[in-house]
């Protein structure tokens, strides 16, 4: 199958890694995976500073190499929420619970354009060790790391003061 | 993967066939497919008469035989919207656009019970030849057949009157 997945991936946390991994599973070894990566201008709408496209792309490439995925993927720069999803011929969107509404909107817009709708695969939620979602915002706030481990600022501060 | 799918399947139309086929695809040859089939008492809430469980089960079994699916499935009688989905260990629900809200509710209820949420795979819409959905209600009303072909009552009536 030809599947599409997208995001800002800043930083590339365990939720993103699982999302991208599932995209490859669903596509199958003979499929195709289009990974949409938001442009700097589009990502700029986020509530916190974003790393440059080139750095985010480098992290993504390192992850794909580490996972040793088959060479069935390509990266597409996203200048808006939809990228090429409204007109492309493909089979499924792979999304998180958070991005499901965008997928639903894509199908509605495709229907308006008389294009066939696509399947939507919503992955299971990936939780941090505190049972809440892993999200870039939480990582940026310093609550958790990219693997969902809770960052204990109090213990860090006391270690720091012990060091002095 | 272990996946679950469900319905009343009365009659088993092309939308249902596609839904069940995709459940087997997503499960994979080493997976498991649990097919929930509504009980007569539960199906009775529908706006139109429903064939008995045994007949609906026989149609389902005939379809599985015709498709020559691997022996990785079992049929579970559904006495409510959820069946065993709230407590079972499984990986994904396979749904249509129409039944997606039930899957979302299942994940919410699992979360309340501190059970891991599952993936939700929404299949593409299966349309009748008039571009509208294939549905049991439309078939029951005599608008379309189980393959989504529009039933031309006018031409049927004129053929009938010609016959006389």
Poorly predicted tracts of residues of chain A: none
Q: Please tell me the CATH architecture of chain A by its name.
A: 3-Layer(aba) Sandwich
Distance between the termini of chain A: 57 Å
Instruction: Spell out the CATH superfamily of chain A.
Output: HUPs
* Average pLDDT taken over every residue of chain A: 92
- Estimate the helix proportion of chain A, in percent: 25-40%
Shape of chain A: globular
Tell me what you see in this structure:
By secondary structure, chain A is of the alpha/beta class. Chain A has one domain (2-163): HUPs (Rossmann fold, 3-Layer(aba) Sandwich). Chain A is 38% helix and 16% strand. The first copy, chain A, is built from 6 helices and 5 strands. Chain A has helices at 14-27, 40-43, 53-67, 100-112, 136-140, 153-163; strands at 2-7, 32-38, 73-78, 92-95, 119-122. Chain A has a 5-stranded parallel β-sheet, sandwiched between helices. In chain A, helix 1 (14-27) links the parallel strand 1 (2-7) and strand 2 (32-38). The radius of gyration of chain A is 18 Å and the shape is globular. The model of chain A has no long low-confidence stretch (mean pLDDT 92). Chain A binds chain B through residues 22, 26, 91, 97, 107, 116-125, and chain B through 22, 26, 91, 97, 107, 116-125. Chains A, B: Residues 4-139 form the Cytidyltransferase-like domain. Chains A, B: GO terms for molecular function: ATP binding; pantetheine-phosphate adenylyltransferase activity.
């Amino acid at each position: 199958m030809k599947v599409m997945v997208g995001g800002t991936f800043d930083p590339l946390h365990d939720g993103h890694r699982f999302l991208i991994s599932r995209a490859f599973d669903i596509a199958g070894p003979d499929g195709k995976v289009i990974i949409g990566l938001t442009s700097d201008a589009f990502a700029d709408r986020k509530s916190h500073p974003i790393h440059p496209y080139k750095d985010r792309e480098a992290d993504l490439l390192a992850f794909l190499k580490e996972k040793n995925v088959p060479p069935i993927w390509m990266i597409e720069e996203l200048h808006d929420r939809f990228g090429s999803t409204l007109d492309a011929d493909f089979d499924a969107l792979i999304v998180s619970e958070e991005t499901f509404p965008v997928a639903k909107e894509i199908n509605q817009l495709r229907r308006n354009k008389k294009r066939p709708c696509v399947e939507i695969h919503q992955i299971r939620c990936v939780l941090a060790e505190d049972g809440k979602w892993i999200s870039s915002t939480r990582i940026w706030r310093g609550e958790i790391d990219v693997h969902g481990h809770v960052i204990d600022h109090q213990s860090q501060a006391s270690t720091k003061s012990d060091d002095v």
